[in-house]
Amino acid sequence: MPRTTDATARLVGELARRGLTIAVAESLTGGALTAELIRIPGASVVVNGGVVAYQSALKHTLLGVDAALLEEHGPVHPRVAVQMAEGVRTRLAVDGRPADIGVATTGVAGPDGQGGQEPGTVFLGLARGAETSVIPLRLQGDRAGIRAASVAAAVEAVWQLLARDRVE
């Protein structure tokens, strides 16, 4: 997997500078996003933890994703990504304090499609307080490339979330 270490180091540094924490919920990235974050020295100050919920049932039981939503649309859906991000933010609270930011990855890495979704269909969910957003991606490449691109896109998405604070 290509490393996004420079961007990740900047992100971890900025989270630390602001005193913010992050929690990660992963499906298609299988722990790679959390691993990318904790690769950076000092990450323990900002990373509360990560949950790999590869099976849909775990998205519901561990992260609180609505069971009816999963039943109707499957795990690769924008609202699933958002609910995963919201759920991990609150469920990986430390000393009763939710993470400041929740980020989630769900999608199809391939080689085959899933639930009517083509390989490369990815949704990134972000939650910060009451603010939520989803970033849809259409990625190209093989399984490893799609997973690596999803990790890089998630790091960039959190960076952009923080950048909005400086503009507004």
UniProtKB/TrEMBL annotation:
Keyword Hydrolase annotated: yes
Gene3D superfamilies with a match to the protein in the record: CinA-like
Family annotation (Pfam families): CinA
Swiss-Prot/TrEMBL keywords: Hydrolase
Domain of life assignment: Bacteria
Segments forming domain CinA C-terminal: 8-161
Record carries keyword Hydrolase: yes
MF (Gene Ontology): hydrolase activity
Protein name: Nicotinamide-nucleotide amidohydrolase family protein
Species: Cryobacterium cheniae
Lineage: Bacteria, Bacillati, Actinomycetota, Actinomycetes, Micrococcales
